[in-house]
Every structure is written in structure tokens, then in C-alpha cells.
């Protein structure tokens, strides 16, 4: 059941309930509780006990117009204009196809709710379906439609507090034109999301599609065009590729002993992860820290090094407790203990990957 403004709800994990005053996004709503305060709460933590009454007044119209409407009610809808809109072609794009997923902050980058857009930067129309996965592992349609050539369309809005709940996006795309055109294979593409990026102001950059700085993730790309859209110069790419080639042609020989003695330090203090974390609640800060912890832990398990120090500080002990709770789940692949007191005091955990 979808939740809407005016619904009376009961809290599942707390006493009492209230009335929904605003639907922030598909994860969170604002509820006026029994004391009269508006509080944000996850949709999964409430249940509707009484739906809002919805009354839609029938617009006044003359009798003749009503009769015509009834006569046309069974008419077949002409879908040609929907599926074959007038295409605004950009000649220099030719047959290149570029589709981006864009995250645009409503206010200050890194500390604001996000408008999410699908951008079609090509001379083809795109029949698209965007799929997400819920917490139970079931997939659901986020958005479907036809995206005209060289246009963008907002698919949803997300509160900043909800970005940690975003699962990866899966896109099903079909490119087409009216009449003769070069056929392009349908695309099925999964775009992975790293929620930590959305809290970093410097992760948002200038782009060709919005006046505001935004995060653009390529879904389908013709490489040359993507470089310009993401503001990467040819010289920068050439330099990076030469550096990569140089490293690959002259690999450094690392001894087994050196590999085992290598140590990675990961500082989980929030000021090391975010440039600006004003406005985040303690639970939101903890989510960002644990997201970074999981990412770095998984990297170390897959690629090394064998020893990792997670610096969590002392504080009230919440972060340390959460870190060790997660490490306990992986005792089959690692062991851990307090890191050196001389170097880190009581604020770090050392783990060794087996």
C-alpha cells in the first residue's frame, strides 16, 4: 500500500503514531506525532491504520462537452506521437549514444536532497526501464517511459538521509528512430552506487546539462563524448594511459614478506570522510562511517594487504562496537585485536586477514 499525505499511521518500533504531513521520497515520510512535532521516519517503520479521505471535485463543464467526452471514451489512442516524437538531432553526435544517471542537489551540494535525472545525450529515442532492488531482494520498477533524443527527465527525488538505502540501479534500454536508422543493440546495464559520494561537496562538478554542479554516472557511453561531458580532457586521458602503460611494462617486484608486512590505515572519523557533515544526525554519520568501513574491508579481503588498522576513536564507543560486531561475522577469514596503544591509544582495531 502506498503511503500518502493525511494517512494516520502507527509506529512499529515505538509507542504511538501520528499523521503523515509530507512524503519526502520512497523511503522516508514526515509524520506529525501525538505531541504535535513533525519527525522524519522510514516508511518501513510505520503501518497505515486509517487512509486519508480523498475527495476530487468533478470539474464543471457544459452538457455538450460531457456528451462528446463519453462518445470518445472508447476511441483508440494514437500512440505514434508518444513513441515517435519530433527528434531534435545534434548533427555532431551522429550515431553515438550516451545515457547518464545524474544526481542534482536541490540546495547545497553534499548537504541537500537530490533530484535524480536520466539524460539521453544522443540522436535516438530511448525506451527505458529503471529497476531497483528492495531490502528483501525483490526487484521493482523505479521508472519506465520514452526518453526523447537529446533530452533529460527527472525520475525521482531522494532525501539525503535516504541515499544509504539506494540499491544499485539496473537499466534496460532500447534505442530507436522513426524510419531508416543504424540499429543499436539493446542495453542492460547495472550502475553501482557508493552513497558516501553524495555527502562530499567536491564530488559534484560542473557539467553540460545543469546550471548546478552534479554527479553524473555514465550508463551507456561513446568514450569521446563522455570525456567532454565529464570534463576530462584528452591530454589528461593520454597522460593517465601513458602512466598506466609505464607501470604495466615495468611492474615492481614485491616479496612475499613485504606483502605480509604491508599495513593499511583506515581513519573512520567523519571529518576524514566528509568535507561538510553539518546537518547529519548521529545515526546518519554512523551510516556513512560503516559504509566506508565495509568498502575498505571488502577491498582488503579481496586484494590485500594482510593487515589493516581501522581508526574509530574512543567517543561513546558506538562506532567501535559496530565495527567489531561486523568483524565477528568474518572470523573465518580474519582475526582482530586492539591496535598498538602507543600509536593509537584505545581508539583503533588491528585486524589480520588469514
Can you characterise this structure?
This protein is of the alpha+beta class. It folds into three domains: 8-50, SH3 type barrels, CATH 2.30.30; 84-246, Sandwich (Immunoglobulin-like); 252-353, Ribosomal Protein S8, Chain: A, domain 1 (2-Layer Sandwich), CATH 3.30.1370. Helices cover 23% and strands 30% of the residues. The chain has nine helices and 17 strands. It has helices at 63-71, 80-83, 223-229, 234-249, 256-261, 270-273, 282-303, 318-328, 341-344; strands spanning 8-11, 17-23, 28-33, 38-42, 46-50, 99-105, 114-120, 125-133, 139-147, 151-158, 169-176, 187-191, 215-220, 263-267, 307-311, 334-338, 348-353. The strands form four sheets. Strands 4-3-2-1-5 form a five-stranded antiparallel beta sheet, with no helix packed on it. A four-stranded antiparallel beta sheet has the order 10-7-6-13, with no helix packed on it. Strands 9-8-11-12 form a four-stranded antiparallel beta sheet, with no helix packed on it. Strand 2 and strand 3 (28-33) form a beta hairpin. The longest helix is centred in the C-terminal third of the chain and has 22 residues, at 282-303. The radius of gyration is 26 Å and the shape is globular. The two termini are 47 Å apart. Mean pLDDT is 79; it is low at 232-237 and 247-260.
Concise description?
The chain is an alpha+beta fold and 354 residues long. The protein is 23% helix and 30% strand.
List descriptors.
five-stranded antiparallel beta sheet; four-stranded antiparallel beta sheet; 3 domains; Immunoglobulin-like; SH3 type barrels; 23% helix; 17 strands; 354 residues; alpha+beta
Amino acid at each position: 500500500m502506498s503511503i500518502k499525505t493525511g494517512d494516520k499511521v502507527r509506529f512499529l518500533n515505538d509507542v504511538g503514531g501520528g499523521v503523515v504531513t509530507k512524503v519526502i521520497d520512497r523511503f522516508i515520510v514526515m509524520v506529525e506525532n501525538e505531541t504535535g512535532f513533525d519527525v522524519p521516519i522510514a516508511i518501513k517503520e510505520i503501518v497505515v491504520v486509517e487512509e486519508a479521505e480523498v475527495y476530487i471535485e468533478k470539474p464543471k463543464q457544459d452538457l455538450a462537452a460531457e456528451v462528446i467526452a463519453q462518445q470518445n471514451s472508447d476511441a483508440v489512442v494514437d500512440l505514434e506521437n508518444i513513441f515517435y516524437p519530433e527528434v531534435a538531432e545534434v548533427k555532431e553526435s551522429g550515431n553515438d549514444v550516451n545515457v547518464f544517471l545524474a544526481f542534482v542537489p536541490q540546495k547545497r551540494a553534499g548537504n541537500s536532497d537530490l533530484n535524480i535525472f536520466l539524460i539521453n545525450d544522443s540522436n535516438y529515442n530511448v525506451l527505458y526501464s529503471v529497476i531497483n532492488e528492495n531490502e528483501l531482494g525483490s526487484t521493482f520498477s523505479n521508472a519506465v517511459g520514452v526518453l526523447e533524443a537529446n533530452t533529460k527527465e527527472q525520475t525521482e527525488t531522494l532525501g539525503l538521509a535516504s541515499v544509504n538505502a539506494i540499491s544499485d540501479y539496473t537499466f534496460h534500454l532500447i534505442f530507436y528512430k522513426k524510419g531508416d536508422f543504424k540499429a543499436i543493440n539493446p542495453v542492460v546495464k547495472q550502475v553501482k552506487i557508493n552513497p558516501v559520494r553524495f555527502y562530499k561537496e567536491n564530488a559534484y562538478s560542473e557539467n553540460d546539462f545543469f546550471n548546478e554542479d552534479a554527479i553524473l554516472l555514465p550508463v551507456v557511453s561513446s568514450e569521446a563524448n563522455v570525456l567532454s561531458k565529464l570534463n576530462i580532457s584528452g591530454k589528461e586521458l593520454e597522460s593517465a594511459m601513458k602512466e598506466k602503460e609505464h607501470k604495466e611494462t615495468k611492474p615492481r617486484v614485491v616479496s612475499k614478506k613485504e606483502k605480509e608486512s604491508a599495513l593499511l590505515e583506515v581513519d573512520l572519523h567523519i571529518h576524514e570522510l566528509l568535507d561538510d557533515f553539518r546537518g547529519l544526525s548521529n545515526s546518519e554519520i554512523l551510516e556513512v562511517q560503516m559504509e566506508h568501513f565495509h568498502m575498505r574491508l571488502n577491498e582488503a579481503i579481496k586484494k590485500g594487504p594482510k593487515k589493516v588498522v581501522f581508526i574509530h576513536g574512543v567517543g561513546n564507543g558506538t562506532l567501535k562496537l559496530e565495527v567489531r560486531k561486523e568483524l565477528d561475522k568474518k572470523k573465518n577469514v580474519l582475526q582482530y585485536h586492539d591496535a598498538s596503544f602507543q600509536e593509537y591509544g584505545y581508539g583503533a582495531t588491528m585486524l589480520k586477514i588469514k
